Amino acid sequence: MVDQKIPKATAKRLPLYYRHLNSMQQQGKQRISSKELSDAVKVDSATIRKDFSYFGELGRKGYGYDIEHLIYVFRKVLDQDEIAHVALVGVGNLGTALLNYNFIKNNNTKIEIAFDTNDDKIGTTIGGVPIYSVNDLEKELSRTNINVAILTVPMHAAEEVTERLVETGIEGILNFTPARLSVPDDVRVRHIDLSVELQSLIYFLKNEQ
Ligand code: ATP
């Protein structure tokens, strides 16, 4: 878990830094200035320096930051070594795309199992992920250590599926449906409404002109 003392905004930027530092290391770079990182991740360098300061004196003037050290520190904070076990419910267009995508560039996250109501899909695999009947949700999830679920069912099914996921002890839900989900306090929900995101982008584009 992220250290309680780290501000939420900083914690939110860590995965972004982590990803870029990793790709820079893969390109053979050993150190980086806050300015260079700033250009790459589009966060201003003062914010980067402030963010990094929560992890101790990691940089030196005129030298920059040691990439390997930063990755080591951030990995510990992000618990990158701990794999998230993910299920997906609703293998429609979006669900299918996510199964095929399956976060392969992010080697600590993987969708391991999927559920649907459609007999044509049940018993098949997509992107190597087996699809089970949603009737077997409790049975299948109880024999795995899945703690996160992605919800790509139609809106009308969202609430019921969520209740069942919560019953099985799911800790986090990534909700792609437009439904507002009510869950107990100890379950985290991230709501991603693609049409709202698109609308808001279009709104900003129009108003900037
Ligand atoms: P998308 O919204 O992803 O583009 P779609 O338009 O192909 O999908 P939807 O009607 O949104 O289809 O349904 C998404 C998937 O959810 C379908 O494969 C459907 O069979 C499945 N589904 C519907 N109800 C349930 C349910 N209660 N539990 C699990 N899966 C369900």
UniProtKB/TrEMBL annotation:
Homodimer. Modulates transcription in response to changes in cellular NADH/NAD(+) redox state. It is found in: Cytoplasm. The keyword Repressor applies. Belongs to the transcriptional regulatory Rex family. Residues 79-180 form the CoA-binding domain. NAD(+) binds at G90, V91, G92, N93, L94, G95. Residues 16-55 bind DNA. Keywords: Cytoplasm, DNA-binding, NAD, Repressor, Transcription, Transcription regulation. SUPFAM superfamilies: NAD(P)-binding Rossmann-fold domains, Winged helix' DNA-binding domain. This is Redox-sensing transcriptional repressor Rex. Its main location: cytoplasm. Coiled coil: none annotated. Signal peptide: none annotated.
